[in-house]
Design brief:
Length: 257
């Protein structure tokens, strides 16, 4: 079974296009995966995805629902201001969408944004060195990270331009003393990037807890790793294969299939 073939028992509403319904299913998988892997922050944070053919409209989770309660049908359609553009029994959380709307509004190449602050990621964001790129996963992130200084809880529109300047043309925004936002051209690539960031943070945190001196990789090796990963994703469908496999694993583990 392909990921797009499992819709959590729901049928496509008549007014919903095939493209939108497929995106809703894929985004639901992404929310459920973040929950399955233990990367949630209770009801907080967002994963947003740009709707195909609809300018500045995005899908995002209903506020107050757990990630494992997200369904294709209850995902909210919002504008850049985080406000509903279609009626729903659920409320949006415009304040929490500030980070996402800033990225979506400025970067047409980024169609999905995931914001998390797991313990390993938050620990790395507190260190002046940030991600050190000396392990298998960290090396893949070389040259892809922008850093933004902590200004408090990310709620206010006035911070948007500064966050965008910190992100630049990169795909990962480290929010110092907070968490990360990872962004890519589709949900599957964004999830694969999040997986890589999470693993890099876990390994770096574990390494920092051990005694002894680290083997420091040369920038040439780091860049080679980062470039090769992107080549595999572009040419060999790495992210798509990975996403399909982990969705199958999750659905089977939860006895949904």
């Amino acid at each position: 079974m392909k990921a797009t073939e499992f819709s959590y028992g729901e049928s496509k509403p008549a007014q919903c296009s095939d493209a939108e319904w497929a995106l809703r299913i894929e985004l639901t998988h992404c929310y459920r995966l973040v929950d399955y892997l233990g990367w949630t922050e209770m009801i907080f944070n967002h994963i947003s995805a740009r709707l195909p053919g609809e300018e500045n409209h995005y899908l995002v989770n209903p506020f107050a629902l757990n990630y494992n309660e997200v369904l294709p049908s209850n995902l909210l359609k919002v504008g850049l201001d985080g406000q509903l553009v279609e009626p729903s029994e659920y409320k949006a959380n415009p304040a929490g969408f500030a980070l996402h709307s800033a990225i979506h509004g400025a970067r047409d190449d980024l169609h999905c944004v995931i914001h998390t602050h797991t313990t390993p990621i938050s620990a790395v964001t507190m260190k002046k060195s940030g991600f050190e790129h000396n392990d298998f996963y960290g090396a893949q992130l070389f040259g892809r990270i922008g850093y933004h200084e902590f200004e408090g809880i990310t709620l206010f529109a006035e911070e948007k331009e500064r966050m965008l300047a910190s992100l630049g043309s990169k795909n990962i925004l480290v929010l110092r003393n907070h968490g990360v936002a990872v962004c890519e051209r589709d949900i599957r690539r964004t999830f694969f990037l999040l997986w890589t960031v999470q693993r890099a943070a876990e390994i770096q945190s574990a390494g920092r807890a051990m005694g002894g001196e680290d083997v420091v990789l040369q920038d040439e090796v780091r860049q080679k790793c980062a470039d090769l990963t992107q080549q595999l994703i572009r040419n060999d469908g790495f992210a798509e294969i990975f996403f399909e496999a982990i969705v199958r694993k999750m659905l089977k583990a939860q006895k949904l299939v």
